[in-house]
From TrEMBL:
<keyword id="KW-0732">Signal</keyword>
<feature type="signal peptide">
    <location>
        <begin position="1"/>
        <end position="23"/>
    </location>
</feature>
<feature type="domain" description="DUF7136">
    <location>
        <begin position="23"/>
        <end position="239"/>
    </location>
</feature>
<feature type="transmembrane region" description="Helical">
    <location>
        <begin position="249"/>
        <end position="268"/>
    </location>
</feature>
<keyword id="KW-0472">Membrane</keyword>
<protein>
    <recommendedName>
        <fullName>DUF7136 domain-containing protein</fullName>
    </recommendedName>
</protein>
<dbReference type="InterPro" id="IPR055560">
    <property type="entry name" value="DUF7136"/>
</dbReference>
<keyword id="KW-1133">Transmembrane helix</keyword>
<dbReference type="Pfam" id="PF23584">
    <property type="entry name" value="DUF7136"/>
</dbReference>
<keyword id="KW-0812">Transmembrane</keyword>
Length: 269
């Protein structure tokens, strides 16, 4: 079992039909795929997709997503190679709305699985005229089953009905347009620009089920995976002979994330 790829954003707004816009000032983060309690056919290209709505608000939040997959009869074991970390501290969130973060898993065995993710963010914490940066986090999970003969994974079909609400699949943060500069502290704490969150306002409700993945967005994710596999040790038969400069740039980012994970040696060209 391998983690096959890592994340970057999708260019283009085609991905978002956005009939119901999110409230201004509210960053909505959530698991778009897999859908909870669904059963899918085994595949070596199983997508895990998170979406940020109002993604530009994430600029100074220093988001980091850590995920792993539980498996086994009582979900007591971990799925080998399925651990992934997406560090979005220097992501350019204005490249697409919504902003997708994704990777692919190789899930060939039948059974019950649970995607578990912990997403952390930074915020300004102002006390006694002092600005420090504190982090908080939120856990999200999606349980699903893999069974031969079940529906094939189809991101477009899975997200077609965006009238559903699924608040437990995500979380929302009320991000003000104010930032502060946290000075270099005497200890290990981080410094720099932080976002001011409004925690006094009522907690906004997330709805990642509002996000549609259209065919262009879906194809773009699989194309990114294909590009990564073509640079790997066992490239598929249909890889292009020449590698363009753009592909090399894309692969460079994959390799660095793969290296950070300490996994997926076959991605390293
Ligand atoms: C997926 O996992 C199976 C079983 O471990 C393995 O045989 C297969 O080669 C893997 N596929 C890819 C693309 O890594
Ligand atoms: C999925 O199933 C679990 C266990 O039966 C249940 O607790 C949970 O509410 C379900 N989630 C959704 C989104 O239906
Ligand atoms: C972020 O992406 C946008 C749109 O592609 C681009 O105009 C902008 O220059 C990028 N910003 C940085 C800091 O790379
Ligand atoms: C951390 O975030 C949770 C929501 O995920 C919130 O309920 C809690 O109040 C936050 N804690 C702090 C110290 O901001
Ligand atoms: C978010 O905070 C702003 C002020 O910064 C406030 O006007 C707005 O009502 C809040 N939104 C929600 C959904 O809580
Ligand atoms: C937080 O939001 C509330 C209403 O939701 C608003 O009254 C208040 O001014 C906001 N605070 C900040 C610091 O923006």
């Amino acid at each position: 079992m391998h983690l096959l790829s890592a994340a970057w954003s999708l260019i283009g707004s085609l991905a978002y039909l956005g009939a119901v816009a999110n409230a201004a000032g509210v960053l909505d983060f959530g698991i778009v795929f897999p859908r909870p309690n669904e059963t899918y056919a085994p595949t070596d290209k199983f997508p895990v997709v998170f979406a940020l709505q109002n993604a530009a608000l994430a600029k100074n939040l220093g988001l980091v997503i850590n995920t792993f997959v539980r498996s086994g009869p009582d979900l007591l074991s971990g799925l080998d190679g399925a651990d992934a970390k997406h560090d979005l501290k220097s992501a350019n969130f204005t490249t697409s709305e919504p902003y997708f973060v994704y990777h692919f898993l190789n899930i060939t065995g039948e059974g019950l699985y649970e995607l578990f993710s912990t997403t952390s963010w930074a915020r300004c914490d102002e006390r006694d005229n002092e600005v420090i940066i504190t982090r908080n986090s939120s856990n999200l999970l999606a349980r699903f089953e893999i069974k031969k003969g079940a529906q094939m994974v189809d991101l477009v079909a899975a997200t077609a009905d965006n009238t559903k609400t699924c608040p437990t699949q995500g979380f929302a943060l009320n991000v003000t347009d104010e930032t502060r500069e946290a000075p270099e502290p005497w200890d290990y704490r981080p410094s720099g620009t932080c976002a001011v969150l409004n925690s006094s306002s009522p907690t906004p409700t997330a709805n990642p089920c509002r996000v549609k993945i259209d065919s262009a967005a879906s194809e773009s994710m699989y194309a990114a995976l294909h590009t990564a596999l073509c640079k790997g040790l066992n490239p598929p038969a249909d890889c292009p002979k020449e590698t363009s400069a753009a592909q090399q740039v894309a692969v460079a980012s994959i390799v660095s994330i793969a290296a950070a994970l300490g996994a997926v040696g076959f991605l390293l060209a």
